[in-house]
Write a structure and sequence with these properties.
Layout lengths: L19 H6 L16 E7 L27 H4 L5 E5 L2 E5 L10 H10 L3 E8 L5 H10 L9 H9 L7 E3 L13 E3 L2 H6 L3 E3 L4 E3 L2 H18 L4 H27 L7 H13 L5 E7 L11 H20 L13 E7 L2 E2 L11 E2 L1 E8 L6 E3 L27 H11 L20
Parallel strand pairs: 1-9, 1-10, 4-14, 5-6, 5-9
Antiparallel strand pairs: 2-3, 4-13, 7-8, 10-13, 11-12
Helix pairs in contact: 3-10, 4-11, 5-11, 9-10
Amino acid sequence: MWTWNEGMTRRGVIQLGLSTAALLVAPPMRWLAQADPNNPRFLVMLFADGGWDPTQTLDVHDPLDMTDGIDVDVDPAVTGLPLSTIATAGGITYISNPNPDPNTGRPAVDTYFQKWGPKTCIVNGIGTRSTSHDQSRQLVMTGSLDPTRADFAVMAAAANGADMPLPHLLLSGDSFAGGFAGLSGRLGGQMSAAIAYNRVGDTGGLAVSALGEAYVQQALERERLLAEHAPPSAISGKLEAYRDANARADKLAHLAGSLTLNQGTGQQLATALGNAFKSGLTTSVTVNPFGGFDTHSNNQDQNQRWQDVFDYLDGLVTGLSTQPGLLAASLLDETTVVVCSEFGRTPELNGDNGKDHHPWTSMILVGRNVHGGTTVGKTDGNQEGVKTNFATGQPDDTGLVIDVTNMVAGIVTLMGANSADYIPSVKPFTAMIA
């Protein structure tokens, strides 16, 4: 058995066992492993690096109430800038500042909620346990610091597309594959080089990259030696395996050429993902298109960062909504988008007019199965999560504080899986599920 390229495909091993003639003339075999044709579920996870300040947009605290800390982005006595206000659109209550100046306002926030509030849920008061960037990033994505725990995007891929060519696609940023390493991959570098070939002419021949050619030649020689004493049935079986692998590699090459790596707009990503989802290439995607949220000095810099998030998110959601789904009216009806950051910012300013790391955060969810037009979870005057009813999402003294593990288990549940199969003994937070 010859290892083709472990990063190239979920199976990782391709048995060729062919003559050179068979390699050149074998017709492609249509890839049959798709999302459940009766119930397609797709996930897009967008990560905002640095630790955002949810009180600027998502976690509403009265801008005029100084008992919950100095709201630096809205207090004119501190900033001399236009006053932010509490607004409601599409059922979502949020902090608004539509001033078009990117240094002072966040007009994309208003635009987004006016259009997509009815399909969006905000979850506030999620405890991250840590204020370390690396630890909190892992905790928010996996619910644990256990290196064997996968993140929720990978778990969704395992539940909804394990037989696809690349069930979880990492376009940029970090991912934690845990025990599902074979399901997740990043298109780029050696992997892109290995599968960068195009069909040529009418003979069915292949023009293979140098790296890919080396793998093919080594595999052919290896299998030639093994096949000298093999019965005809073994050769036939390996031909079928090759055809299957060839089809997967062909689709992966197409995917590699059609998706940008952490570049472009939300609309462009929607178009590329629409092709990938509907072609049966992948079911779950992780992208890190946002950064700059680590505002230890001058917290006003969060304005432009939030503008970027909601401008991109509007483009992505709009793009998904205008493409037909596999079965539903639009791809948005079959796709869930989750936007998160590793933690939040402290309630009060530090000596540099910035805010430091704070182990509480918020998430944005939109699309399939999301209880739209709602805000669930809550923080108190210290911006710390309060006890919450996990079914309703409202404050409840008999409830629990939302921990990242509960939130990750809830997202896995939202994606149609049994969270106990992936995160045993953890109660999922489900108030954001329709």
